[in-house]
Amino acid sequence: MTELFTVHTPPAAWARFIEHFQPSVRTERIATADALDRILAAPLTAPQDLPEFARATVDGYAVAAVDTYGATPGLPAFLALAGEVPMGKAAAFAIGPGEAALVHTGGMIPPGADAVVMIEDTQRVAADSIEVFRPVAEGQNVVQVGEDIRRGQPILTVGQRLRPQDLGGLMALGITEVTVAIPPVVGIISTGDEVAPPDQPVQPGQVRDINSYTLAGLAIRAGARAIRYGIVPDQRAALEAVAARAVQECDIVVFSAGSSVSYRDMTADVIDGLGRPGVLVHGVSVKPGKPTILAVCDGKAVFGLPGNPVSAMVIFDLFITPAIGLLLGAQKAPQPTVKARLARNLASDSGREDYVQVRLETRDGELWAVPVLGKSNLIYTLVNADGAIKIPLDANGLRAGEWVTVMIH
Amino acid sequence: MTELFTVHTPPAAWARFIEHFQPSVRTERIATADALDRILAAPLTAPQDLPEFARATVDGYAVAAVDTYGATPGLPAFLALAGEVPMGKAAAFAIGPGEAALVHTGGMIPPGADAVVMIEDTQRVAADSIEVFRPVAEGQNVVQVGEDIRRGQPILTVGQRLRPQDLGGLMALGITEVTVAIPPVVGIISTGDEVAPPDQPVQPGQVRDINSYTLAGLAIRAGARAIRYGIVPDQRAALEAVAARAVQECDIVVFSAGSSVSYRDMTADVIDGLGRPGVLVHGVSVKPGKPTILAVCDGKAVFGLPGNPVSAMVIFDLFITPAIGLLLGAQKAPQPTVKARLARNLASDSGREDYVQVRLETRDGELWAVPVLGKSNLIYTLVNADGAIKIPLDANGLRAGEWVTVMIH
Fold first, then answer.
1. B55-143 sits in which CATH class?
2. What is the pTM of this model?
3. How distant is the Cα of B393 from the closest Cα of chain A, in angstroms?
4. Fewer Cβ within 10 Å of end Cβ, chain A: N or C?
């Protein structure tokens, strides 16, 4: 155990952790149609111009713009109708000077044309001729070859989460398969002799397992798969056996430990025995969440979280979501936040990051952040909160009425 | 067809639509463990107090607070040690005046005790007695019965999306099954003779299907299931056949129509024949997206979207996501937004809502919204955008440098 009970600031704890945790991103090829919200893992360039042919953006007549210059309702330009370009087909003919071709929105512009006159600005005067009442400029009402994207141009960014419109952008280029990150696997181990499964009657003195489910949900939201290893009694051999299996099967192992000092010590010992370098940080200057363990064991990330549900969630957001992001090679996702005014004074010790759960309330059209005052061992403190605010390391608190940034959860 | 080409404002279009679309929420019972991000569909109350017994929040000694009053390191209170309460067990004994019981964090407080002295503030002086150096107040270091939540109290809110912590809150009360909304089914029909499947080589004049995939992704993100009905040629009989099947199988049917006027008219006719009352709105004062159709056909919501990908996405966000919300009985989800400064002047006609795609850029530490100037028929306009800003109906534009709200997508 390299360090014991030296409390680290959150940034120092993270720096120490990533010194030893530099995973490579595992990738797979999947159908683009199934890639919604997956993380792109390989660079892409456009294999073709898009569009590959000049297209009309309106219904009308493809023309050489120069043939329409000076046209007015009183003095229209007369053009010969050379034919119609059917939708979904190549233009089978070119137009010459003084000629026009009927085209539809999205249809191909025939060779010789460089603009499209809107149908409303024309009149058919015979089967084979039209009048044009307004001039068009070169390129008007036309999407040029490569105007959407040019062949060879890079598209999308490695590490980005694929949005609906990104799938559309890939399909437009015929890219029907993509390389994405394989979701890392997060194993969750609940410990504590007082913890009972939620689907069975509890005995006096017992509490139901909460954290397995909350942490699994957080892992899934962060882009991982979650495996719950159930509840392990506070016996060292039992904990070691489950931990050894979890470290084999997962990329990240999370212990939701009993909260008493003896349990925490045993968890730290077990984690330290899982591989090298072992426990890196034991104690982080954050409230709630101080008795947190960060470890790397033979390349796997291992965390010991406080048993309190509020602490567990704060620490998950602080360290485990970013660790999942490393395994995904994901760009840091922008955390959804809102600005609100703080409804009451909040004290904090300098040298410690405080996370305070808040409820959002609209008062006279203004958004207020109302601290949820429940203890950090109450799950309904979290359930009743819309988000959390952070009191930074170097602050001594926040004043009522101040504008704060609420991280929505 | 009740109204034709009378352009409605977006709020008027929505009002007319929901006059005829008032679906009931279909529900199912599922395991709470599987309910992440599902919409709660039935009210819940706490079936028990949580916790059901008073619990210690620290490691220490359960005492009657009155026995510690005035205790100091120099003049400690002497208490007899009545025993230890093991984790996960009921306290098998009560403490009397002048007695204390060893308890662990999360453990049960024995009858007779009303506070816990932290272990650090005590000293074991014999096998059966301790010294207390600091007084505790009644209730100190104790979670009271029902302090987390009281039996009979309402928990969560019908229509809310279940977050990781909400699953924890349900599990804590032994609620291992919940009633949630069944995801509505959105059917997507692509039309247009020029549209080709993305996995096949395209011929000159053809473009690949983009909108089926983008719209399916948007539907999934809004909490629905998506069925793609493929690409239907612009023949009325073919379109009618697919439409009739989709309306049977889905709650919402979306036509991603060809963009030319003749295709739009045919789509409107086909939609109008699908059931009563039929087309309600044909044309919305929004840019891009004007040629939009809103219809209700025998209780199913049917939409005709412009073929342009940008228009299709704007209209999906404006009408279809809220329609999915009605079918889910979902509370309006807060749209993720950021404030940014507009990088250039934007003109707009009063009487029309404009949606402008923007890219976010940080300049000198300030966030700027840079309009992506691509045409609305370019998919990479969307791909290159981080979000959109809205120029309201009654505005004539926005000025460079102004603070705007960017809806992230």
1. mainly beta
2. 0.94
3. 21
4. N
